[in-house]
Amino acid sequence: MKQEIRDFAAAILVDSAGRLLLQLRDNGPGIVHPGKIALFGGRREPAESPLECIMREVAEEIGYAGSADDFEFFVSLHGADPENIANHVRGEVFVARNVPSANLVVTEGKLIVVHPLELAKFRSEMTAMTRIALKAFLRGSPSISTSNSEKEMPPNAILFLCTGNYYRSRYAEELFNHLAKTKGLSWYAFSRGAAERGSPDNVGPMSVVALDRLRQKGIRPEGAARNPLPCSLADFDVAKIVIAVKEAEHRPLVESRFPTVASRVKYWDVDDVEFAHPSIALAKLDELVRELIENLQVR
Q1: What does the pLDDT look like over 167-217, one tens digit per residue?
Q2: Is the pTM of this model over 0.85?
Q3: Whole-angstrom distance, CA of residue 246 vs CA of residue 194
Q4: I need a labelling partner for 13 at 20 to 30 A (CA). Which of 111, 137, 147, 286 fits?
Q5: What is the Rg, in whole angstroms, of the alpha carbon atoms belonging to the chain?
Q6: How far apart are CA 57 and CA 11, in angstroms?
Q7: What is the DSSP-derived secondary structure letter of residue 101?
């Protein structure tokens, strides 16, 4: 029997307050996953690109006419369909931020506005694909598969901040997660940029310098394929510990963008590539991350 491939696009929509905008599906005949909570999106039409699909679906379902630049690719979900094990799924998930939740006109289902800390209350009501995508998004890594990503993640999160989420914070995230896993530590790290936008000089999703050093250490970076992400208030809510890697550089950004939570941030002193050679900066991050791991082990 030939397997069916479900080809779709979906969007993780975030409003200006860092809240997630989800769809409570209608509970009527002919509705896929009736009464379940899902991401907005739907099946791709013939000859339609994933980006064209999600722009059309979001416009149809909530009246949000965002531009192509408003939808950032996040992750591909290809593999066994967790909602129908006899079939396969091929989906592309995008992220759109600063969506005006107060001005949306919902034409399919109902709009649910959820703070990330409240997601646990709705988990049993979500579709499997929604749980998978949101877990990856909150962790900050798109390295997921449909076969194993339903496993629970450690409850304790550390947020690393650099300016553009391209070099230092990404290196710290990957190194921390590798060491935490090898030592059985129930913590995980994710990273973001303290600035609203990264540098246009950054090429690719992650600094090749950071990638090369991780590979020299035998570390396979899980989040190497994702693009840099700017920080939001929701990221502070998820994290128990927040560390910015350079105080002189990042304190002004944090205090300007997030004054209500700025006091929570701890600061290191690791210079960017313009001021310190990577062999020096990354060696310093090695030392600081290992020290952090040791301190968490004795908590």
Answers
A1: 999 999 999 999 998 988 888 888 889 998 777 777 788 899 999 999 999
A2: no
A3: 11
A4: 147
A5: 20
A6: 9
A7: G
